[in-house]
Amino acid sequence: MTDLYLNSKFVGTVPEGKDFVSKIIDDRRKGNVSGNLNLSFNKDLDEIHVEIGKGRVRRPLIIVKNGKSLFTDDLSKQLEKGEIKWSDLVKQGVIEYLDTLEEENAFVAFFEEDITHKHTHLEVNPIDMFGLCTSLVPFANFSPGARVSMGSKNQKQAIGMYIANYALRMDMDVNILHSPQVPIVQTIMADVSKFDKHPLGQNIVVAVMSYKGYNMEDAIIINKGSIDRGFGRSTYYRPAIAEELRYSGGLTDEICVPDKEVKGYKSERDYRLLDEEGIIHPEANVAEGDVIIGKTSPPRFLSSMDEYNLATNVRRESSVDLKHGEEGVVDFVLVTENGEGNKLVQVRLRDQRIPEIGDKFTSRFGQKGVIGLIVPSTDMPFSTAGIVPDLIFSSHGIPSRMTISHLIELIGGKVGALSGRYIDGTTFLSEKEYDLRDELNSLGFREDGTETFYDGMNGTQMEAKIFVGNMYYLKLKHMVANKIHSRARGPIQLLTRQPTEGRAKEGGLRLGEMEKDTFIAHGASLLLKERFDSDKTLIPVCEECGHMGFHHALRDNYVCPVCESAAQMSDVEMSYAFKLMLDEFKSLGVIPKLALENKY
Predict the structure, then answer these.
(1) What is the DSSP letter of 597?
(2) ∠ CA 221-449-442 to the nearest 5 degrees?
(3) Taking a C-beta distance cutoff of 8 angstroms, is the pair 391, 206 a contact?
(4) By CB atoms within 10 Å of each CB, which of 40, 175, 446, 459 scores lowest?
(5) DSSP secondary-structure letter at 308?
């Protein structure tokens, strides 16, 4: 008898486990059993596992019987004419859905010509093992799986035309590429997903070579002429929102230009861009600190006595202003009401982003890199035909990563650009590499994709042949303008007196253990004295009892809480966090004492 498990729970036993499984599968294909059911027979443990639960990933496969696919040419013609649908194929038992459990007992052929009598299923199309983004990667079968996966992830971060009506929307953190293009080298998924309606990048000329060391460690070099002609240019949109909230006691916020009596009033210059309603006008240039929506709120804390006090008329300032490091142009202003009927103001800011050193770009194969240098087009290397590459890619990124599809796309893109057609790079079903090379040869170029190049600086011919071609490159949303951050002194936290955290709050940059090690290894260990005193403070300590004292402002002298004012006190330099820890000890009933020694 074979043990039977339903959704991982033991439900009983059946005789002849293998026959039982084949009978259930036959019934499922005939429609007598739910098509959502999957099962597998584990011969070693003599167990049958049946799964019918939710949340399983299942994929369609064509059924193979006696070494022949059930999806015949007649069915194919009927499908093309629209006489039958996909659902009909599933009902007829030509296609079935398997989950990972049942796949263990399946032997799947890639192509129809591969089928033997041992095979149980045939792939509908080999590309259906990938998700949407991964199947957009051309020639993916020429790269390691990890790189294909990275290329898929990179496409999700690429800037393109994410939606057509972006001008009417108030989405957070949006980037729009100014001149997106359809790739020359495509996969079948580009048609299926209507990729031409929401493209992600641009077709550019890429040369594989080193140039002055500015493209080592995955960096790339970009032609300034290409940037001037619009390569990688995008706009960044960000909304700011303010609403008139209602509070208990009939108090409300008010969107207006704050009066000078308001608590926390900034300065007249900060409010200069607001109209009489307290809202900024479109196309205004704004920078850090400028108020874009003026707002006042009632006082934060009201006691029962304060309600009768005249002083409570003083409202507090709660305007929306631009944080540290932000700038842009007001693109769109919307005045409306929220669900509760309160006034709601939304302002969208835009900022043009032109590629600069540190911006991130990638091909579709996980070969990402930041701009290391922007070179004037007169100094860029050029081919005998006068072609100047838009981007120089380091050749050292290829051997260890084995992204051969990166190189094949260069040749494919070159053929497509010269012959004026799109190249099919669908995984497993792409145009053959040697066909592309033959076509490139027939177009008057070397079949290996290399060309003779000249140095743009001095005009001499380069000794090596340079690999050059056309490629679809993506600009990623990780831009220097959103991440650049530095600070000398600035705001500190109330409790620890250490710098605040985060770029938006003008926070400090933490130096960790490993960064400390690099300073020491560099022979600059004294720099650590500078770095590790962000919360340096002077605390008076009693020389007699070792307790921390304080400075009495009225008497202008130091006081020890134990020895009274007669004690001899000395200022001790320490971290405020350490002083805080000593106070924490006191709260636990542990009295710390500091034993002072003479410095000299």
Answers:
(1) -
(2) 145
(3) yes
(4) 459
(5) G
Name the residue with tokens 């636990």.
588
- What DSSP string runs through 310-368? GGGG--EE--EE--TT--EEEEEEEEEE-TTS-EEEEEEEEEEE---TT-EEE-TTS-E
- CB atoms under 10 Å from CB of 502, counted, come to 12
Cα-based angle 465, 467, 473 (whole degrees, multiple of 5):
155
3-class DSSP state for residue 145? helix
What's phi and psi for 469, nearest 5 deg?
-175, -175
Q: At residue 468, what are phi and psi to the nearest 5 degrees?
A: -140, 145
Q: CA distances (Å), 271 to each of 263, 267, 326, 351, in order?
A: 15, 7, 17, 21
Q: Give the C-alpha separation, 75 to 63, whole Å.
A: 14
Angstrom CA distances, 460 to 381, 394, 412, 452, 456, stand at 10, 21, 29, 11, 8
> Structural domain boundaries of the chain?
2-129, 140-233+357-475, 236-353, 536-587
Mind listing the pLDDT tens digit for each residue in 490-534? 999 999 999 999 888 888 998 899 999 999 999 999 999 888 889
How many angstroms separate the CA atoms of 579 and 254, rounded? Answer: 43
Please give the Cα distance from 390 to 417 (Å, whole number): 15
Rounded-to-integer distance, Cα 263 and Cα 290, Å: 18
Residue 140: the pLDDT is 94
Q: Which amino acid is at 462?
A: M
C-alpha span between 211 and 395 (Å, rounded): 10
- Of the candidates 378, 235, 377, 244, the residue with the CA atom closest to the CA atom of residue 320: 244
Q: Give pLDDT, residue 310.
A: 53
Q: What is the DSSP letter of 375?
A: E
CA nearest neighbour of 123 among 99, 90, 96: 96
Q: What is the pLDDT of residue 420?
A: 95
How far is it, in rounded angstroms, from Cα 121 to Cα 108?
5
Distance between CA atoms of 377 and 271, rounded to whole angstroms?
A: 44
Distance CA 383, CA 163 (A): 38
**Fold of the 140-233+357-475 domain:** 2.40.270
Cα–Cα distance, 471 to 201 (Å, whole number): 10
Structure tokens at 3: 């043990």
Residues sharing a CB contact under 8 Å with residue 410, sequence separation 6 or more, in sequence order: 206, 208, 449, 467, 468, 469, 470, 471
476-to-151, 163, 233, 371 alpha-carbon distances in Å? 12, 17, 11, 12
pLDDT given at position 158: 95
pTM score of the predicted model: 0.84
Q: What is the pLDDT of residues 257-311, one digit of tens each?
A: 999 888 889 899 999 999 999 999 999 999 988 999 999 999 877 655 555 555 5
From the list 587, 581, 599, the residue with the least C-alpha distance to 543 is 599
Positive or negative CA dihedral for 375, 381, 382, 388?
Answer: negative
CATH architecture of the domain 236-353 equals Beta Barrel (2.40)
Token pair of 158 as six digits: 């690429």
Query: Shortest CA distance to 200 belongs to which of 133, 124, 109?
Result: 133
Helix axes 404-419, 433-442, angle to 10 degrees: 40
Active site residues: 218
pLDDT at position 324 is: 84
Identify the CATH homologous superfamily for domain 536-587: RNA polymerase alpha subunit dimerisation domain (3.90.1800.10)
pLDDT of residue 8: 87
Question: Which position has the token pair 């005193």?
Answer: 533
- Residues of the chain predicted below pLDDT 70: 302-313, 565-566, 600
